[in-house]
């Protein structure tokens, strides 16, 4: 295990200053007082690990991350439990996915125990920033960037920096849980086979902004990505995975598109693949076309749709728009959607038992 140097801020924010932020934190707008940094180069490997005061990074204008986009990130949350302890939800899965992304982006792997230790140190140092309010959490953002200076494009960087920052955050979609509207993007593609769709790299999100702007211009909250070849098969919503609910009551079942290299393998998605069958709701991974989505809603076979992810948790989808027209699924979150959300959030916040070992103490 790499040793961390600890450098704490000279003056922490007062309780009053902190509470003013926690009362209305937004999402990813205000940051805690410390951060983690670790350096890597070919000669030393991972070294110079520090918990340090939050502040700007000094980088040369020719640093490779600015020119070739060699970077990636993760996103997870810390939750305060009823007894005051601070935990995270499946951080080991984030550590594994971080390294899978590193492999795809030709970046060095970070030992998983170091990834977890970095979260523990930051959460312990800034534990007072973990909200107590229902639905709020401390959002953790580990990331890695190429820091070698030079314009050579024939090889990946020989130097990197790993960093973790944290932000107290409210729900990703503000207000009460309510269905979002989505726009079917026919003109833009998020990922193609052999690309970086399964990696959590910033380029995927930068390329998505124009389609998200189009969705907003069409009066929708989010964009739904379709496959690159035919623009027919549903893949995911924004940066979230999609689930389709067929039937109702004891006959309800879930369908979600398979992750075949173009879809981010979400940790919330994977959790629901395990959790839903335990609740008596079968799950299958199947391709869903736009035509099938529309026709199954019209026939009543498809009863609910929801998106899931670390930031959005489980969010119902109510209305679908595209160049061919629009259709409505529901005006409120359906019973299957809300039951899964209640169970998952209950585990995260310590109100439900955790038979899966998903909860890890951080502070």
Number of helices: 9
CATH topology of the largest domain: D-amino Acid Aminotransferase, Chain A, domain 2
What average pLDDT do the residues reach?
95
- Count of all domains: 2
Could you estimate the helical fraction of the residues in percent? 25-40%
First and last CA, distance: 18 Å
Estimate the global geometry from the Cα principal axes. globular
What is the oligomer described by this structure?
A: single chain
CATH architecture of the largest domain: Alpha-Beta Barrel
Main CATH class of the largest domain: Alpha Beta
Contiguous runs where pLDDT drops below 50 for at least 5 residues:
none
CATH superfamily of the largest domain: D-amino Acid Aminotransferase, subunit A, domain 2
Could you describe the 3D structure shown?
This protein is α+β, with helices and mostly antiparallel strands and 363 residues long. The chain has 2 domains: 4-169, D-amino Acid Aminotransferase, Chain A, domain 1 (2-Layer Sandwich); 180-348, Alpha-Beta Barrel (D-amino Acid Aminotransferase, Chain A, domain 2). Helices cover 25% and strands 29% of the residues. The protein contains 9 helices and 18 strands. The protein has helices spanning 15-23, 64-68, 91-104, 112-125, 202-206, 209-217, 267-278, 290-299, 335-348, and strands at 4-6, 34-41, 45-53, 71-73, 76-80, 86-89, 137-146, 159-169, 180-184, 222-226, 234-237, 241-246, 253-256, 283-285, 302-309, 313-322, 325-328, 359-361. Strands 1, 2, 3, 4, 5, 6, 7, 8 and 18 form a 9-stranded mixed beta sheet that branches. Strands 9, 10, 11, 12, 13, 14, 15, 16 and 17 form a 9-stranded mixed beta sheet that branches. It starts with a strand and ends with a strand. The mean pLDDT is 95.
